[in-house]
Predict the 3D structure of the following.
Amino acid sequence: MTRLSLMLAAGLALVAVPAWAHTGAGATSGLLAGLGHPISGLDHVLAMVAVGILAAQQGGRSLWLIPLAFLAMLAVGGTLGVYGVPLPLVETGIVGSVIVLGLVVALGRHLSLAVSMALAGAFAVFHGHAHGTEMPVVGGLDYAAGFMLATAALHAAGAGLGIGVRKAAATVAPYAVRALGGAIAVGGLVLAAG
């Protein structure tokens, strides 16, 4: 990824309009509430799936280490939120995660494992903090377990999607090239007949 791309992504993340997806409303205790929460907001779904796709794009050990870095830092951010440690620009960081992770995936550049893990982990702190502030200190462990499991499932879905698209592209590409060649030949026949 070029410096210009990184600066553009960082700039967009800083000026992004917050999603305000974290109102504190609704159930915030219990395993089922924790399982449901990450899939109830588009910001989280997009970011978690992007982490999985990024991991699939990078391949190898990245397939499990990038999501693991996200989960570890999600727990750190959640703990900070539960205990009321302030973190500025949480909503902007969450929206920024969607923008930046989406751009990194879209550009398709291979990043080092350390950079990929740091990127995922940095954004995870914002996601974790937002949910930690909504979680009660007493009785919140079940919620946290559910939230972590749902997040891991979204990462796995993203990784599966990334791997599936890559395999489909490898299968479809030869036929697409042949179809393109056939269309060109038909175009030539039309030119010859015209």
Notes: Helices lie at 3-15, 31-36, 42-58, 62-82, 90-107, 113-134, 141-193.
